[in-house]
């Protein structure tokens, strides 16, 4: 299992605590220090069944600077969004947890974290 975290995020800390309490083995990826590549983001999005705009934190200052709220959410613009997430990992919703079987969730709620256990 792997969890993408920002240690400053309370939701990330809560998810890590839940994983610890469940006794599962996992790898922590501090995605701000070790940003995912565009290819890794595509793989995660495919496992989540989501589009890049679905996991974009649109209230982040960099999102406002880029003007992502006004970007089209179309297949033709998908790569633009992915490239923005790869270049600006603060835009990525967190935490993202991937189980060994490939099941992936955005663990913002306790229920989402439980679903991966």
From TrEMBL:
Pfam families tied to this protein: ArsC (PF03960)
Keywords: Oxidoreductase
SUPFAM superfamilies registered for this protein in UniProt: Thioredoxin-like (SSF52833)
GO molecular function: arsenate reductase (glutaredoxin) activity
InterPro entries membership: Arsenate_reductase, Arsenate_reductase-like, Thioredoxin-like_sf
Signal peptide positions on this chain: none
PANTHER family: ARSENATE REDUCTASE (PTHR30041:SF4)
UniProt family annotation: Belongs to the ArsC family.
Name by which UniProt lists this protein: Arsenate reductase
Natural source organism: Actinophytocola xinjiangensis
Phylogenetic placement of the source organism: Bacteria, Bacillati, Actinomycetota, Actinomycetes, Pseudonocardiales
